Amino acid sequence: MNSTQRRGVGIQVRGLRKSYDGQLVLRDISFEVAPGEIFVIMGPSGSGKSVLLKHLIGLEKPDAGEILIDNESISSPGLMDRHRIAMVFQSSALLNSLTVGENVGLYLSEHRLKPPAEIEKIVAEKLELVGLAGAQNKLPSELSGGMKKRAALARALVVEPELLLYDEPTSELDPLMAVTVAEEILKLNRRMSVTSVVVTHDRDLAFGIADRIALIHNGSIYSIGTPEEVRNTTHPLFQRFLAADFNLKQSDKS
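Above: the chain's sequence. Below: its structure in token form.
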């Protein structure tokens, strides 16, 4: 199946709980994501966002509750391969000893899924898709932070994902490059109809790309809604979170 024929998958999270050393980190988390939706999980640092994301990709197992992908448990054997789930890590996680092209095509070559000539063609196609045409022979050390993020995105795309997970995709990027990455997320969602779950504390990113936003704090989801609905939240913590700025000089004058 090619990318134009793929569709996103639906996600159902029901009563998810997780604790470490007796400390509850996820507290009865429940939500649904529609096929093809861009669903953003937003909250302050330490709120449980990344732990939740690890559960969605099967890196962690919950103490209670369940996660369903198109009504099938995420623990079902072979589910990750059947539904083509991929993740773009916060650090990009590129291997410095490999070229960009080798990094992007690593999954296909390691599993011998395609002949070398076809892998080369697929890699070129995915790099072009994220605005990195001709970067195959560069090393990660030759890329800017934003280019590394897009190379990591191209690597995720080689599996033709139906579900794409992003962990803080604009962290450590300057504002202009953050906008570029946000635009790539939107373009891919529209072109491939992939379901996208984005974990972030970047308010501009969340409001710029989300179909819906879930606000999470202290392991609990307090509100889920459209960007406009979330902007109008009455929860005091999130009112402060959404209104926070760094205009300290102005604050000193008041």
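The chain has eleven helices and ten strands.
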